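JOB MANIFEST
job_type = single_chain_structure
chain_count = 1
residues = 200
[input]
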Amino acid sequence: MKVFAIAVFYKSEPNAILLNGSFDLQSFSFFQRNSVRQFMVFTGKLIIDRSPIPNRTTVKEQGYLCHVYIRADCLSGLVVTDEEYPSRVAHNLLSKVLEDFSAKVPPAVWKVDREPEHIDYNGLDSFLARYQDPRTADAMTRVQEELDETKIILHNTIQAVLERGEKLDDLVERSEEFYNTLTINWVWNGIVKNVQRLVQ
């Protein structure tokens, strides 16, 4: 599971404007990184341009998942992940990123008609690093994994109890056979003693 990119856009007419972005492209060769970055930004702009306001969507493109969230104020976010990354966690990340961005950067700076020179916001790098492992970043994922582990342990325990129950059934059956054998022997010994008394 991997997050490759987090980007913040402003959905303006006619095209979305990239405001800020953070990319983790270490898994690509050095010569591919710029092309991959451009592909991710282009795909994000395209999805945002073609989506209504407000909207949450996930689009699969060339083996990657592009998660997009467009708010009512046209502030938009993009998270690019691999196919294994949970969509719920990615959309939760988008909500947090856009909330943090809008709290730290005033709307007058990002409600623009062209790409700004520089926006002083560096929170995307920390989000990108923290959300690489969804289990540590998201409480729901962590709880779900703990539930899955508990379910496995409980299943194994029930299986062991059932196996012990079968062994107990075998012991009960053997004890009944032993009791029946003892009863027959006791009755037989009583008959033999009575016959011996009569014979004497």
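[summary]
The chain has two domains: 3-165, 167-199.
The longest strand covers residues 3-11.
exit_status = 0
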